[in-house]
Amino acid sequence: MSDNNSGQNHPFYEATLETKPIFQGRMISLQVDTVRLPNGETATREIVRHPGAVAVIAIIDNKMLVVEQFRKALEKVQVEIPAGKLDAFEEPEAAAFRELEEETGYRAKNLVHLHSFSTSPGFAEEIVHLYYTDDLEKGEVQLDDEEFLTCEAISLDQAQDYIKQGRICDAKTLLAVYAWRMLVLTGTF
Fold first, then answer.
1. Considering only CA atoms, which of 153, 156, 163, 165 is closest in space to residue 184?
2. Of 18, 46, 147, 152, which one is the catalytic site residue?
3. Taking the chain, what is the end-to-end CA distance rounded to the nearest angstrom?
4. How far apart are CA 109 and CA 62, in angstroms?
5. pLDDT tens digits for the chain (189 residues)?
6. Residue 149 in contact with residue 68, Cβ under 8 Å?
7. Is the pTM here over 0.90, yes or no?
8. Contact, 49 vs 138, CB < 8 A?
9. Which positions ≥6 away from 74 have C-beta within 8 Å?
């Protein structure tokens, strides 16, 4: 396996020959790229462009703050950790502080960056920056006009039950629950 896993020098690199914009929305855009494959042939790649997002594992009194909201793409109500997209030119840490308070009404005194990960690298460029805090103070909920959710603090056992019930099924929240479980069991992430 190659040490260089990114960039134009990698043997699997796909050079972009043409980009065709398809859709420009409020949150995402879609483009179709024509690429040259490593064997010299061409192919198309449908790519969703997204500004990136943040998510926060927020622990208070040995419970994790979660929000419950309807997700149209799944046609169901989901329980998720507080999260949201980056605003234009916004630093991820600033967005994490903002989103946590907006959705939960709690303000973090500090945040620890745990990891940044891609959500669907086969077709989307979205990167989620995951943070942790257990140093919270009461703030003020400030939902967007189109945002309808409730916030609750759940135990680790409740979180694991929500996973079994399918109430938690998104990647960032699954990752958060498993990271929290590791912290509880080992004292570290």
1. 156
2. 147
3. 28
4. 17
5. 445 566 889 999 999 999 999 999 999 999 999 999 999 999 999 999 999 999 999 999 999 999 999 999 999 999 999 999 999 999 999 999 999 999 999 999 999 999 999 999 999 999 999 999 999 999 889 888 888 999 999 999 999 999 999 999 999 999 999 999 999 999 999
6. yes
7. yes
8. no
9. none
Question: Could you tell me how far CA 145 lies from the centroid of its own chain?
Answer: 21
Q: Tokens at residue 188, please?
A: 């570290």
Q: How far is CA 141 from the centre of its chain?
A: 20
For residue 140, indicate whether it is catalytic: no
71 vs 88: CA distance, rounded Å: 23
- Continuous segment of H or E residues that includes residue 161: helix 156-165
Which stretch of DSSP H or E encloses residue 103? helix 92-104
| Sign, Cα dihedral of 1, 172, 132, 112 | positive
